[in-house]
Amino acid sequence: MSAVIELEKLTKTYGSRRGLVDLDLTVGPGEVFGYLGPNGAGKSTTIRLLLDLIRPTSGRALLFGQDPRRQAVSLHRRVGYLAGDFVVNRRQRVGECLRFLARLRGGVPQARITELAERLDLDLAARIRALSKGNRQKVGLVQAFMHRPDLLILDEPTSGLDPLVQQTFLDLVREASANGQTVFMSSHVMTEVEAVADRVGIIRAGRLVALDTVAQLRASTVHDVQVTFAEAVDRAGLAALPGVSGLTVDGSTARFQLAGSPDDLIRLLARQHVAALRATTPDLEQTFLTYYRADSADQERTRV
Ligand SMILES: Nc1ncnc2c1ncn2[C@@H]1O[C@H](COP(=O)(O)OP(=O)(O)OP(=O)(O)O)[C@@H](O)[C@H]1O
Fold it and tell me: Membrane-crossing residues (predicted)?
């Protein structure tokens, strides 16, 4: 099946500032793609380019194999978009606003709007101007999901949501994916991305610095391992294992870092008597921070 999102050397400069540099990326049908990066990394720039809200300096973006500039009207029907700075008419009531947006999307059953509002604990009768930031964000989520678009493009979708509503949002993403819809979501919250994404791209200073499956990113993270043996420690054997570094031995306990697969370690331990074993399970947050440990000079290099 052809790609839903296809970016080729996509580049955007804002005057002398670099927003995005040579981004090559393909997202397939039904995939949940997490787009991670710190403030100012280029996430919103990428999303605005995808939707033709801004034009690339060079390179190109295709959605469903089509040019978002030339086929804007037909493409926008297939896309649910939640902007990072989602704004609507503040004088309207929530239900009124959503019905208006539903008509623009070619019609959505009222039951679908009500179901989403109930799940997100959003009052359809409330005036938008009276809503808190989190509740306004819920309006943004309902309008993005309600017409079951083929592609959901969500810019920081959980911003301002409380943890319970965040969980409901993750359920909506899982359901969309199970329904064959593609989700491209930006975030700086690794745990939420880890919970739903198939693949993750990490962007820093306008450049994609990592692109992998969640499972693979986790596997490439360094584990902290501590093994207590019921016999003398085979120091040389441990030190010789691929990926082992920082080995220290204290009595019958060995401590070290292990990069990559633990397979060789497990084989070695299987030949010995192990009294206790502890290995920290790396989460994406640790991986993420490894990629983020950029010094401030790195930020400066965003200038052309
Ligand atoms: N309209 C603009 N004019 C000038 N520079 C801009 C403009 N929009 C974005 N930039 C710059 O482009 C870079 C990327 O910004 P972008 O908004 O895409 O980041 P982001 O990853 O979405 O950040 P955040 O998490 O803060 O929303 C930043 O250096 C930003 O200052």
Answer: none
CATH number for the domain whose boundaries are 5-213? 3.40.50.300
- Name the token pair of 186: 């930006």
Phi, psi torsion values for 59, nearest 5 degrees? 80, -175
Instruction: Report how far ligand 1's centroid is from the alpha carbon of 81 (Å).
Output: 18
Kindly indicate whether the ipTM for this predicted assembly is greater than 0.90, answering yes or no: yes
Distance (Å, whole) CA 133 – CA 137: 6
| Stated length of the chain | 304
pLDDT single digits (tens) 11-38: 999 988 889 999 999 999 999 999 998 8
- Ligand 1 atom with the smallest distance to the CA of 38 is 25
Question: Model confidence over 215-231: pLDDT tens digits?
Answer: 887 777 778 899 999 99
14 pocket-lining for ligand 1 (C-beta < 6 Å): yes
**Out of 3.30.70, 3.40.1000, 2.30.30, 3.90.70, which CATH number does the structure's domain 222-280 have?**
3.30.70
